[in-house]
Amino acid sequence: MRARVDLAKCVGHGRCYVLAPDVFEEDERGYCVVRSEQVDSALESQARLGQENCPEHAISVEPG
Amino acid sequence: MSETSTPTANPNPETGEVSLFDAELARCPQPVYGRLLQQQCPVTRAAFTGSPVISRYEDVAWAMRHPEIFSSEMEMQMALGTERPMIPQQIDPPAQTRYRRLLDPHFSRRKMEALVPDIRRHASALIDKFVDRGECEFDKEFAVPLPCTAFLSLCGLSLGDLDLFLKLKDGIIRPQTAQPELFEGLAIAEIMEKAKTVRAESGRQIYEYFDRVIDERLAKPRDDLMGQLVHAEIEGEKLERNEILDICFLLILAGLDTVTATLGCNIAYLASNPEPRESLVRNQGLIPGAVEELLRWETPVTAIPRVVKQDVELGGFEIKTGEMVTLLIGAANVDERHFQGASEIDFERGRNLHLAFGAGPHRCLGSHLARMELQVAMEEWHRRIPDYHIKAGEKPRFSPGIREVLYLPLEWEV
After folding, report:
1. How many domains does the structure of chain B reveal?
2. What is the CATH number for B37?
3. pTM value?
4. Closest in A11, A28, A49 to B363, CB measured
């Protein structure tokens, strides 16, 4: 699975790195940083939880 | 704002108008939101002012993400005792973006995490004062002082200024409650005038207070938020004194009442609902989810205003340039079109995209601070006082607009 964030949409709600801390982290402003675009299979459900809870729909997770 | 009591007629079944300052709407808003959301037209008008009210989730979220249409630049209309726009709340992008770049790092989740031990100590010290009494008035003894203490800590201000801060904040937000003696026997028109005077005077004192703090930090640098603001730069330029003052004004207005109201709404709900309360006591791991779900369900900041900068149409309803509109966040947060099981309260809701902290570029600057304060307060409270209820024969009293539970008498076994 691949995880991406659209930084044009992110406004720093921080739901992703709170709910999926192994997939996402925060930059200095509290905006989303994807730890590694290629998501380990053990972390896929965490990645989805983070993606679903982004109020700005800024995160995408896709197979691959 | 005076309260009217018309429990079944809001929104008005004939005109569709909604009364935003209705006592019932403050006490138990969800049924009113439900009726509003079922109306055919997605926009209705507010009773008395006639200004458009937007209540569906998709529309509210869309408006929040389009500040070029739904602008926050309306400091004059708000008349909150300010002399200039509050920064960054009353300024839109692109100017607002520069300020957010500067301020966001000071309010990041990571920064707020560092305050946890401090807030926990303050919460615990407040509880110490009444735990053995077996009762308290939650608003006055916990919900009001905790966020204010947190704010003073964050800014690096003296905790001895707590009472002064509360007085100044109330002077702006609810002048009539803050200084009732000034309003006795006045007619409505006189009340409005007097409120304006009290607001302006409180505003002046807030500017003066922070003006002094700026001088102190310039003379003697310190590593607290005030010290950092004094030396902060945007694109190589220091902030002007007025810019710092306009930031401080926002912090005091936005940072105190909102968390107070949320704490009150949460505890009022849990005091009357033993099952969810017991679930939190048994499993403190549910608290973060409960905080989110109660922000959604209770939505203490029920609405935010915007001014329309270009004609816009929503579901056939035309809103004209210059009109003030209300984004009814509380209604959006219980909209069945967006939330599955919107009227059920579920602390383990897997997906919760509530708009309690807004969305788009004006997302609440203090959201990470608020979440941290709420979580720590809920943890400490339930660790110390797991089983409590509303005092027999008493009723909580909610204020409209920002739903502070002004009177919340609790009791428990000792």
Report:
1. 1
2. 1.10.630.10
3. 0.95
4. A11
Token output for A27: 């930059």
Compare CB distances from B109 to A11, A26, A53 and report the shortest one's residue.
Answer: A26
Segments of chain B with pLDDT less than 50: 1-7
- Report whether the peptide linkage leading into residue B94 is cis, meaning its omega lies within 30 degrees of zero: yes
Q: Examine the pLDDT at A5 and tell me if it is beyond 50.
A: yes
Domain count, chain A: 1
Residue B355 with chain A: CB contacts under 8 Å = 55
B252: in domain: yes
What is the pLDDT, as a whole number, of residue B143?
Answer: 98
Question: How much is the pLDDT for B2?
Answer: 47
Residue pLDDT, tens place only, A36-57: 999 999 999 999 999 999 999 9
Q: How many CA atoms lie within 13 A of B88 on its CB side?
A: 20
Q: Which of B62, B101, B104 to mutate to probe the A interface, most A CBs <10 Å? A: B104
Helix (H, G, I), strand (E, B) or coil at B169: helix
Task: Tell me how far CA of residue A37 lies from CA of A22, A55, B180, in angstroms.
Answer: 12, 20, 59
* Cα distance between residue B63 and residue B122, in whole Å: 38
Crossing angle, helix B188-219 and helix B241-255, to 10 degrees? 120
* Closest CA in chain A for residue B349: A53
Which CATH number does the domain housing residue A55 bear?
Answer: 3.30.70.20
Domain around B221: 23-411
Per DSSP, what are the bridge partners of residue B317?
Answer: B314
3 state SS of B317: strand
Residue B13 neighbours by CB distance under 10 Å: 10
The C-alpha of B411 sits at a distance from chain A's nearest C-alpha, in angstroms, of: 34
Q: Give the three-class secondary structure for B391.
A: coil
* Interchain contact, A52 vs B351, CB within 8 Å: yes
Find, in chain A, the residue whose alpha carbon is nearest to that of B64. A56
Specify if B17 maps to a domain. no
Does residue B6 lie within any of the structural domains?
no
Neighbouring C-beta atoms of residue B4, cutoff 10 Å: 16
Whole-number pLDDT of residue B78? 64
ipTM of the complex model: 0.97
Query: What integer pLDDT is reported at residue B77 of this predicted model?
Result: 65
* Residue A38: domain span: 2-62
Q: Which residue do the tokens 């590593």 mark?
A: B223
**pLDDT tens-digit profile of B258-269?**
999 999 999 999
Cβ pair B107:A30 closer than 8 A: yes
